[in-house]
Amino acid sequence: MEVPVAGPLWDSHFPGLMAWELERLRKRARAVEIDQPKLAKGLLVVRFEWPFGESFLALEASFPSSYPFLRPQVRLLSGREDWPEHHVSPVDGTVCLLGRDTAQWSPAYHLAKLLTDQLENALLGDGAEDPQAEPADVWWNGLAPLPDSYCLVDSDWKFDEESQGRLDFFYVLDECETPRIRGVIRRVLADDDTVLAEWSGPLPAELAQAKRRISVRWYRAGHVVLPHEPVVAQLRELRNQHLGGLGAPTSVGKNLSVRPFVLVHPIEKLGGGHVEGWIFGLEWGTPRAFGKKGRRADHGIKLSFLPILRAGSGDLHQRVPDAAPLRGKRVAVFGVGAIGAPIAIELARNGVAELRLVDHDIVEPGNSERWPLGAASWGRRKTEALAEHLRSQFPDVTIVPVHHQLGHSSEQGTDDSALALALVGADIVVDAMVSSGVTYFLWDRCMRQGASLVKVGATPTLGGGSVVLYVRGGGCPVCLQYARIDESVATPPGGGETPLGIQPPGCGERTFTGADYDLQELSLQSVRLVVDTLREGKQSGLVQTLALKNMDGERILPRWSEQALPQHIACCAKPDI
Predict the structure, then answer these.
(1) Strands, DSSP E only, in 398-533?
(2) What is the pLDDT of residue 195?
(3) Which of 15, 412, 438, 463 has the CB geometry, 3.0–4.6 Å to 493, for a possible disulfide?
């Protein structure tokens, strides 16, 4: 019997585990051989033959240093022509014995049992399995050698009746030893210049402004093309097979030329059918390397490919269908401080069409602990700093910053001019300001306009807070006060207290002490209520109350309660509408 000269670290944590694993493996496998050089480095890699039908399969198992908590990886050692189409990595033959969910592997499992239970199912396609399409993009992107590079495409494009043509590739380039190229396919055309697909989704600012363009030939493969090693040789073969002549290179920098080519192929789609798959090949080198008229002058040309990223409008939002009510909606957020700014960010992230941001304050350095943007925003207007961030990260959202303090008129405008920008046409309004007067004012204007109002705020001690929905015909802010007095609506912990707080040097007034991780409980619930209101068209007001502390002021797990907010019998503050 082969005696290991060393062992993996996990065998010292669990003495005897490696011997136990090998003993069980040898009961069914034959020709078991340990890779001694790797074992000397603390890695257990075992090659063996495993019974499969009436023959044996040559396999290699690699145990991670995190074993037994994470599974060993098993790959086929047979020729690529013998690999099945599914459940095997086309790159190195690793067999998908379990789904990606790590809970499917138990530390009580061992390699021999894993192979006994799962190998035939994986290779023959028998038995239950996770429904999943073959991830061709994942295989290719995992091998892409150009750092910080990509090509954007739209998964909704479909033109499988066409076999070849050209496309317009707009790009930005960082010239360095290994070029970094980020680009988007703006148009796909057939050979007769018929437009087959055109980009209509959002773009990062650098690509939205990109002027550099290359016209690239594309051809279609009639079957899915999966990568295999050596991938550069495969790319060269694909190019020669489908594109024929090399064509002339394009100068893209002082001493850099490229010659791109694109292969379109069908890749599987979960639930049946297929989407267009893309392989964006790229030759690059110095002009001298390409020589005159594109002929190869020396061996300085390198062949690579760009990772494909899917960024069409449908690609960006299909993971969060619950946020669909935000699509096409305009939301105004009054107050973009520690509560309002995270609300704006989440609304933008989840696909709202337009955000109006109203505030008059600047970003103080001391606010960084509970404001989402850091030192780069110090001294800037909150509305402008937040607007810049949102435009750069969520380019499909229209951002309207309104720098104004309600209750004050200035050369920049009046309350009416600010509200004309923020309220007119808004589908719903969020009040995250710390001012009862502003809340009464916004409630009046929203009810006259027919827009729902979501008021969010924390208590002075940050023992809790509330998110309140005001709708036409429901209770008003004064109704809420009466309801809390008669206890038909709960008062959040700390709601009746007036703490001293602190007044940091340079601040005009005292401020509460509290953390962003508590305030975000209120921010996120406000976003949920906005989405639910837009989806359901809520017809009655409600109050959602948060408790972060108990009656003794001790921290507790966040606890929410919800109560209706009808018009209160003692209240007469209803607008004449």
Answers:
(1) 398-403, 428-431, 452-458, 464-470
(2) 97
(3) 463
CB contact at 8 A, 432 and 334:
yes
Give the separation between CA 130 and CA 500, rounded to whole angstroms. 58
Could you give the residue ranges of the DSSP H alpha helices within 14-61?
A: 17-26, 36-40
Total-model pTM: 0.88
Backbone angles phi, psi at 416, to 5 degrees: -65, -40
Tokens of 100: 């990606």
- pLDDT value at 444 more than 50: yes
Start-to-end CA distance of the chain, whole Å, equals: 92
Other CB atoms within 10 A of residue 400 CB = 15
Q: Is the pLDDT of residue 298 over 50?
A: no
Helix/strand/coil for 359:
strand
The pLDDT assigned to 284 comes to 87
Alpha carbons within 13 angstroms on the beta-carbon side of residue 221 total 21
Domains contained in the chain, CATH given? 9-129 (3.10.110.10), 137-316 (no CATH), 322-565 (3.40.50.720)
Question: Count of H helices and E strands in the chain?
Answer: 15, 22
Task: Supply the pLDDT for residue 544.
Answer: 97
Scored b (16 or more CB within 10 A) or e, 428-438 reads bbbbbbbbeeb
Q: Over 70: is that where the pLDDT of 575 sits?
A: no
Cβ atoms of 536 and 559 within 8 Å: the answer is: no
What pLDDT, on the 0 to 100 scale, is given for residue 138? 87
pLDDT score, position 344: 98
395 vs 425: CA distance, rounded Å: 21
Between CA 274 and CA 157 the distance in angstroms is: 11
Q: What average pLDDT score do residues 329-352 get? A: 97
When computed from its CA atoms, the radius of gyration of the chain, rounded to whole angstroms, is: 31
d(CA 55, CA 560): 62
Q: Is 337 left (phi over 0), alpha (psi -120 to 50) or beta?
A: beta
Residues listed for the chain: 577
3-state secondary structure of 429: strand
pLDDT for residue 358: 97
Report how far residue 132's alpha carbon sits from residue 90's, in angstroms, rounded to the nearest whole number: 16
111 alpha carbon, distance to own chain's centre: 34
Rounded CA-CA distance 505/421 in Å is 35
Strands 555-565 and 541-549: antiparallel
The confidence score (pLDDT) of residue 294 equals 47
In DSSP notation, 126-154 reads: -S--------HHHHHHTT--STT-EEEE-
Contact 148, 114 (CB under 8 A): no
pLDDT value of position 323: 94
Q: 400: which residues sit within 8 A by CB, 6+ positions away?
A: 354, 355, 356, 357, 421, 422
Give the Cα separation of 154 and 165 in Å (integer): 17
Element (H, E) at 560: strand 555-565
pLDDT at residue number 297: 44
Instruction: Identify the DSSP state of 330.
Output: E
Q: Which two tokens stand for residue 364?
A: 């103080």
